[in-house]
Amino acid sequence: MSKPAVIMVTSNGVGAGHLIRASAIARRLTPTARPIILSMAYSVIEVANALGIECEYIPGRDKGVMNRRKWDRYLRDRLVALIDETGARVITFDGVVPYPGIMSAKFQRPDVNFIWVRRGMWQRKPQGLALSLQSKLMDYVIEPGDVARDYDFGPTRDRNESVLTRPVSLYSKDFTMSKEVARKFLKLDQNRPTALVHIGVGDKDQDERLFAVLRGLSKWQGLQIIMTKEPIDADGNSLLPPEVQVKVIRHFPLADVIHAFDAVVCAAGYNSVHEVIPAAIPTLLISNNRGTDNQEARARWCADTQVTLFAPNESLKKIELAAQQLADESVRRKLSNNSRLLGPFDGDFRIAEIITHLLDADLSSLFAKRVQYGRIIALSAFEKGLAYYVRKTLNWALRIAAIAFRTLFPHKNQISEKSEPFLSDSKNLQLTTQWIRSTARFEHVLLNSSDSYIKKRTLIASKAYEMESQLFINQTNDQVTQDQWGVLLKRNSLKI
What CATH number was assigned to the domain covering residues 5-168+346-408? Predict the structure, then answer.
């Protein structure tokens, strides 16, 4: 008997946080279910390949391949088609707020259970104004716990419609390599101290922070510095201080090789923090407060609790000095020992359990879902009190304000140059990375898709792109060179 399918939709945030969190849950689901990730993140195929999980890439609305109104319909049609192809009974969405296309798909397939995996620690931004309505439109809301929840004062903090779990982490003793094995795997010197620097490059502010980090780490005698991206600016110029050398690696998930490093410097995103702390790796956090995630609050909690170091991103001098502290063995020992006192970080198990329960066919009716939702909420509920009703009234008022705001200030529609759409099931990273990062209208499909699904996807793309009744298909692609792919697509064109 085949495993029941679960479709895990993720948006494309500032980083790959949504995708990685979904991947951690997917990895826990594989013994009992068939997780399929449908993601707007550029790295989805790389991540899915590394974890052995099925996936489809879908261009996000910010990619500009079509206007936003059409994109919402496109997302709905893509999701409904994938539900029908796989027979999925559970859909999870990990993103800031569910898109209208998600809601439309839910209304078209009411027997399917829709779950919003909603991370906490929000900054106070306009996205939080319509939380009440957005939460009610989904069948379930699950909040992955945050180690720094005591410092969460955002709009999700005291809401009572969600099921709170322990933190979700891709780090697991079941998968991680030992220090010796990880260093051998990454081809690192076994006898030298090693630090991983995992922060962004390419923007002026990020480049300056990286330079400060590297300058501070340069005081660590004999240190080998590892990065996941080339230390160059947008113009291709080196960001390395004099006499500093780095080794660049590309591996996912980093959580499986994290013990190769004696120290880590990274942003204070949800996934990074919940990987380095259970691994007890001495870490310097530098907050990146773009987007919704309140990274500064999370980093300050970690520093106040003495499980990591923290440097504010606006002070290059403090960043350099904090990086320099990592060379002190006593500092590293204290951070590691304190980290070991926290945990467990196994929220992915709990979320996987809830999903598995909802795969039960008896819970497919809307009534049954509502009853089950009430039962789950009751397990984690607390006394509402007067404050709850005050907040409820305020949320209602804010919801009206949010609708008015978006009416007055609609999103700008930025559409990229038109290109010939094509369909492909490729898992070849060289090809798919090129297609995803370009303006190509790349329609990605599951491996071994049925003929009816291919035809349906063809019709969806034709409608979304307002093209003539023809779509080029490439399903024999992984052996194709970059120069050959266009020819092959035309050879395998499908008339509809």
Answer: 3.40.50.2000
* Token pair recorded at residue 85: 């192809």
Cα atoms in the 13 Å half-sphere on the side-chain side of 232: 6
- How many Cβ atoms sit within 10 Å of the Cβ of residue 125? 13
d(C-alpha 55, C-alpha 47), whole Å: 9
467: number of Cβ within 10 Å: 14
Distance in angstroms (rounded) separating the CA atoms of residues 468 and 421:
11
Do 5-168+346-408 and 179-339 come out as alike in CATH topology?
yes
Categorise residue 327: left if φ over 0, alpha if ψ from -120 to 50, beta otherwise: alpha
Instruction: Give the range among 16-30, 296-310, 395-409 with minimum mean pLDDT.
Output: 395-409
CATH for 179-339, among 3.40.50.2000, 3.40.50.300, 3.40.50.261, 3.20.20.70? 3.40.50.2000
Please report where in the chains the tokens 């009716």 appear, as a residue.
365
Phi-psi region at 448: left, alpha or beta (left = phi > 0; alpha = psi -120 to 50): left
Torsion from C-alpha of 209, 213, 216, 222, nearest 10 degrees: -160
Q: What share of the chain is helix, strand, coil (3-state, %, to 5)?
A: 45, 15, 40
Q: Tens digits of per-residue pLDDT, 72-113?
A: 999 999 999 999 999 999 999 999 889 999 999 999 999 999
Angle at 453 between CA 429 and CA 426, to 5 degrees: 10
- The pTM for the full model equals 0.83
Residue extents of the structural domains in the chain: 5-168+346-408, 179-339, 422-495
Partner residues linked to 310 by β-bridges: 285
Distance CA 375, CA 64 (A): 42
Q: Which residues pair with 94 in a beta bridge?
A: 10, 117
Place of tokens 């939380």: 131
Three-state helix/strand/coil letters over 49-111: HHHCCEEEECCCHHHCCCCHHHHHHHHHHHHHHHHHHHCCCEEEEECCCCCHHHHHHHHHCCC
Q: What is the DSSP letter of 400?
A: H
